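User: Please predict the structure of the protein below. I'd like the answer in structure-token form so I can feed it into my own downstream comparison script.

Assistant: Understood. Taking the following sequence of 383 residues as input:
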Amino acid sequence: MSFSSFPQASSAFPQASSAFPQASCAHPLSPYGWDADWEAEFSPYAEQGLLPGRVVRVDRGQADVFTADGLIRADTALVTPHDPLRVICTGDWAAVEPAGDPQLIRALLPRRTAFVRSTSSQRSEGQILAANVDHAVIAVSLAVELDLGRIERFLALAWESGAQPLVVLTKADLVPDSTGLAYLVEDVETTAPGVQVLAVSSQTGEGLDVLAALVTGGTSVLLGVSGAGKSTLANTLLGADVMEVQAARDVDGKGRHTTTTRNLLALPGGGVLIDTPGLRGVGLWDSEAGVGQVFSEIAELAQQCRFHDCGHGSEPGCAVLAAIEDGSLPERRLESWRKLMRENQRIVAKTDARLRQEMLRGWKQMSAEGRVNGAAKRGGRVR
């Protein structure tokens, strides 16, 4: 999407939704989620003459930021730390200089939530996908066989982020009968305790009014693999063909990455939507709490185990294994829980090891500097 294709505030942005705590009357940023809490958080920067703005896209060291003066292109050089989890991303609230070419982002406000996954690199780094998100909308295509394990991964990341997950089964019109569709919804509901599951169709309009009502107010992020129908869903919610759409392959339902950057857009009914590129990998990132939330029934059963540190393997008196035996807990759920817990433990172990190495390098550097300084005091003699 080009910079100029973002709608301007004068005509495209709705009045602030009641879901946001009200900021000062008729604030131009209210449609983007500006509220009284953000206003209070920003007050030290306001005293410095800086402008508040919400990041709608980041690309190659610059960001498109919506401010009270409209959409601007700002430089991110001053807020680009070495920590990949602190780099600026779509959804951030920023303090921007009021003038300049380009204008500079001076600081970011503390995030309320952050959606993070692990990268595919060998450095055990996390990648932040979206910030200050209220609803994580996980799009899953019904044009292909359901991958319940992948849904559980997305849910774990969503719960860990602090956002409320919502699973949207797209392309419901491709399921030949209502009974079959009901079974698919039920399968996902079993996989997603505490999460609403909604079947929708952009072709027939099924479920779209419910989805539009759910995302009204707050910030929603669209997540899913390529071909899940995210861009079509975004266009439907936006009421215009804003996002480019390409057909998925018939053989496997996969699509090309028609969305290449994360974009934040105002919804006509209130609230904002962040559309993301299709995710090939959904690696966990320090998501033990999120995994526990996805498999809450296992956590509840574990409280009844004889041993408080039961590993649910072969221990006597294991309530989880008893549930497997009587059929009340599907064995697939236990295996999936084990897999995600092992993966998360590996990520945490690698991250801790990386941090230890960084600390060790820091200590060595300080020690070397101390020896040099000591030598200078002794007239150049290094001990």
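That's the full token string. Residues 1-19, 246-259 have pLDDT under 50 and may be disordered.
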